[in-house]
Amino acid sequence: MVVTAHYIDGAWNLQSCILRFIYIPAPHSSDRLCATLVKCLMDWNIDTKLSTITLDNCSTNDAVMDKIKEKLHLSTLLRDGSLLHMHCCTHILNLIVKDGLEVVKDGIEKIRDSVAYWTATPKIKEKFEETAKQLRISCTKTLSLDCSTRWNSTYKMLDIAILYEDVFSRLRLRDTRYTCIPTSSQWKFARDVCERLKLFNKITEIISGTKYPTANMFFPEICKIKLAISYWINSSNLLIKEMDNKMLQKFDKYWSVTHDIMGIASVLDPRYKMELLEYYYEKLYEQDSFEQVKRIQ
């Protein structure tokens, strides 16, 4: 277990330091994890100075947080500890995208196979680049095969492969062994998937900054995702629509437990105050927006 503290120092600079790096033997039960974390907090005398604790999203960590609240003096914490558990936003985005990609994985398989084929050896790569030059297509970006455990690598693979759609089509005539050629409808499907991944990739980069505070940025970016998925869900492509539905279900699961702390952080940003909250809540909640804004106040 790694326990990292993020705080503002006396000069108002964002700082972070590792408080403890400790081996915890199996089984990693909630009781054992809770005891280790609480001991660390008390050893550093910060158990009454916490704003939030951020963990990955899993049932064990949820149980850990319930037990931690039983051991801390909640009256010393923000809103009596109701905001203590902050779910990791980047991990939430990761779960949302993975659920969506699971639905469409077969739809992009031929593009993945094509990329794998044309990156297999240096000689094959050279043939690909020669064909691109013949078509006067700049070969500034190299084909990249994705990794099954990293969704952003799938985004990168599709984003680059789409640039060379004409090259793949031309190579079909030059290499009879190249049989996994994507159809025009599969390329269109890939562009639809890539459009969705592009937004998630952009927002993940914004909220993953380590050199500046990002909590105040979470709220508007996460709201953009909610609005985008709600728009995408009207797609005429049934598989894309199923992908969007899966992502929306996962989003809604975590939205209810994260939007309060993100909304508060946004209000405390002097650039936004209540205006940004009111703007997005009106779009998200419509008739219930006033009650939601009032609850954050």
TrEMBL record:
- Output the Pfam families linked to this UniProt entry: hAT-like_RNase-H (PF14372)
Coiled coil regions in record: none
Record's keyword annotation contains Lipid biosynthesis: no
> What are the record keywords, sorted?
DNA-binding
Transcription regulation is among the record's keywords: no
Q: Which SUPFAM superfamilies match?
A: Ribonuclease H-like (SSF53098)
Please name the GO terms that the record assigns under molecular function: DNA binding
Residues of the hAT-like transposase RNase-H fold domain: 208-296
Q: Which domain of life is it from?
A: Eukaryota
The name under which this protein is listed is: hAT-like transposase RNase-H fold domain-containing protein
Q: Which organism is it from?
A: Pisum sativum
Q: Lineage, please? A: Eukaryota, Viridiplantae, Streptophyta, Embryophyta, Tracheophyta
